[in-house]
């Protein structure tokens, strides 16, 4: 089947299609559920355990302290990304993958803010941008057969996919979600049986996952049936996507491949606003770890990309910077494990903190020639 997509201009222009898609913001909890989604009350009113697993952390959970620390670290991360965007674009050639990606990201962020397509948290710069109509896109996603047939769905923790996380739990499915920026651990599993009618909505937030989720490690035996991923921009003709620039979606995907939880056949879906559809992501310039998408859901349509872009096969250590490795404890654990198993040291990528005038002579691996 040929993919169906909007006819886009280059560069992105304000089309009437985009403007018509801007709708009045609706509450994530009051908007009607998709016509084909079968709501089931899978959560229990008096449930504190599920299959012998404890579903809440031992002791009192300090919600205010958790949220304050999360906000502080998010602000630091966005400041770091803003600095990186300047560092990576100043004096860079058009062929530099970091430079052209930042150009597209900034165009989308600026466009969404200028037309008030952006939704809180704002500004959306250096985020997976939340958008007006995010719940409509979530409803379309949850109408998909691949979603309905899934038992375990991995969903990113960002704001525009909050509705997908809610509908996953309302449908009685396991929700697998990464701890934000993988800084406090790895993934957490949230199951509807762990929740009450009063907590299921909260469980879709970062605080709720910390309160009600069960952290898992690299040895967890789990099968993920569907991956939902956030995007800043996506090309519906090819399935090429750009995230916000930190690379965590790629790391999460690579670690799930290592665990055997997913393979090439695991569908990858993204939900975005129509204005985030672009036609100028050069597939030949993508890197070997960039994750493509099979399906795109917007507030107005579902697009099958029929992507031909190969999916990453694991972690590409030769492209992983010392800074990123130092930020993610579970990544360091995986590296030590592989080195023990193989008896060989793994390679490491270049530092992210190149001076502005540094010569970028080493080209990161392209898909055609890179090896895992």
From TrEMBL:
Gene3D superfamilies: NagB/RpiA/CoA transferase-like
Compositionally skewed regions (Basic residues) per UniProt: 363-372
Disordered, as annotated region: 339-372
SUPFAM superfamilies named in the record: NagB/RpiA/CoA transferase-like
CC annotations in GO: cytoplasm
PANTHER family: 5-FORMYLTETRAHYDROFOLATE CYCLO-LIGASE-RELATED (PTHR13017), METHENYLTETRAHYDROFOLATE SYNTHASE DOMAIN-CONTAINING PROTEIN (PTHR13017:SF0)
Protein name: 5-formyltetrahydrofolate cyclo-ligase-like protein COG0212 isoform X1
Organism of this sequence: Cucurbita maxima (Pumpkin)
């Amino acid at each position: 089947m040929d993919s169906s997509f909007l006819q886009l201009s280059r560069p992105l222009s304000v089309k009437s299609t985009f403007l018509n898609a801007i709708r009045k913001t609706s509450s994530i909890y009051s908007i009607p559920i998709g016509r084909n989604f079968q709501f089931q009350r899978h959560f229990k009113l008096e449930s504190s355990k599920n299959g012998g697993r404890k579903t809440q952390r031992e002791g009192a959970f300090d919600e205010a302290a958790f949220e304050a620390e999360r906000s502080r670290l998010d602000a630091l991360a966005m400041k770091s990304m803003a600095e990186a965007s300047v560092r990576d674009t100043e004096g860079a050639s058009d062929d530099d993958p970091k430079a052209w990606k930042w150009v597209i990201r900034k165009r989308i962020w600026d466009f969404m803010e200028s037309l008030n397509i952006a939704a809180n948290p704002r500004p959306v710069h250096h985020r997976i941008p939340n958008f007006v109509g995010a719940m409509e896109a979530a409803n379309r996603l949850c109408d998909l057969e691949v979603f309905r047939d899934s038992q375990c769905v991995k969903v990113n923790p960002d704001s525009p996919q909050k509705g997908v996380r809610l509908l996953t739990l309302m449908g009685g499915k396991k929700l697998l979600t990464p701890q934000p920026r993988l800084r406090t651990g790895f993934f957490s599993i949230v199951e509807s049986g762990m929740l009450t009618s009063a907590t299921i909505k909260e469980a879709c937030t970062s605080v709720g996952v910390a309160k009600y989720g069960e952290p898992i490690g690299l040895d967890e035996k789990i099968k993920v049936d569907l991956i939902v991923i956030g995007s800043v921009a996506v090309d519906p003709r090819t399935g090429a996507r750009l995230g916000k620039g930190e690379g965590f979606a790629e790391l999460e995907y690579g670690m799930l491949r290592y665990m055997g939880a997913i393979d090439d056949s695991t569908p990858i879906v993204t939900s975005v606003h129509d204005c985030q559809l672009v036609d100028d992501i050069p597939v030949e310039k993508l890197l070997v770890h960039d994750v493509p998408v099979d399906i795109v859901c917007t507030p107005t349509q579902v697009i099958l990309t029929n992507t031909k872009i190969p999916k990453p096969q694991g972690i590409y250590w030769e492209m992983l910077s010392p800074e990123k490795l130092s930020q993610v404890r579970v990544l360091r654990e995986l590296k030590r494990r592989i080195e023990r198993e193989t008896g060989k040291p793994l390679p490491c990528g270049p530092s992210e903190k190149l001076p502005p005038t540094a010569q970028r002579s080493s080209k990161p691996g392209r898909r055609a020639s890179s090896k895992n």
